[in-house]
Design a protein that fits this description.
Layout (H helix, E strand, L loop, with lengths): L8 H10 L1 E2 L4 E2 L1 H16 L6 H19 L9 H10 L15 H23 L7 H10 L8 H11 L5 H8 L4 H28 L7
Antiparallel strand pairs: 1-2
The structure holds ligand LTTT4AJV.
The site of the ligand CCCCCCCC/C=C\CCCCCCCC(=O)N[C@@H](COP(=O)(O)O)[C@H](O)/C=C/CCCCCCCCCCCCC has 20 residues, from α2, α3, α5 and α7.
Amino acid sequence: MSSTEKFSLREVLVSFKSCLVYDNQDILVEHYLNGWKGLVRFMNSLGTVFSFMSKDAVSKIQIMEIYLSGEQGEHYRTFQSMVEYELRSNLVDLNKRDNHPESGCRIILCLHRVFRWLQLFLEKLRTSTEDSKISNLCAEAYSDSLANYHPWNIRKKTNDAFMDLPARNTFFEVMDVGTTEEVLDMLREAMPYASNVYDFTQALYSKHNLLDLP
Ligand SMILES: CCCCCCCC/C=C\CCCCCCCC(=O)N[C@@H](COP(=O)(O)O)[C@H](O)/C=C/CCCCCCCCCCCCC
């Protein structure tokens, strides 16, 4: 993954919109990962204080890409096929970290939990005002989602990193979408797709009792 490619929020939106297939009844792994690659590029443009986050995300994305390009790659084409393949092949650590700590099911669960943060953050951003602090919006969304799965040291490091985030107008400039109204229009367009992606993944993992993998 090239971290120097220019970020495009529009491309991220297209990726998360196009990953939903078969009438919102499955998610294409490749397109989902492309969305995350775009978001990682955006985060990298905000400064090295977030490098510990992007390193973890890149590591997870690269493991999924190895699965996709491997001998069993066809089983990793969609979320449904991945879950069914790994469960019937006993490739998921269901109750404790064992032989499969980096199963596709677990990696996608980690990214799904971050996706919940993203969904909450984007909604806060969409309804923010000129004097809203991006650091507060990020921290509130984190506290209501991903923080519940992280140990104290990660929570501390993450919340400290949020303090380095720029003001709202600068953040919008980095998003490089256009005027504030154009940013808000894109966020309004993005929210339904983000909800569909999150809701499908949540329902799939809940159906297979995979929401609390160790
Ligand atoms: C208009 C769009 C603006 C939104 C931009 C958001 C960009 C976010 C892009 C990527 C975020 C990647 C986060 C890193 C993945 C974290 C996955 C995770 O929870 N990993 C932990 C568990 O993994 P295992 O160790 O069990 O394998 C790992 O222990 C922790 C890693 C450290 C990172 C944790 C902090 C995550 C914060 C997510 C919020 C992103 C804030 C971006 C600031 C703009």
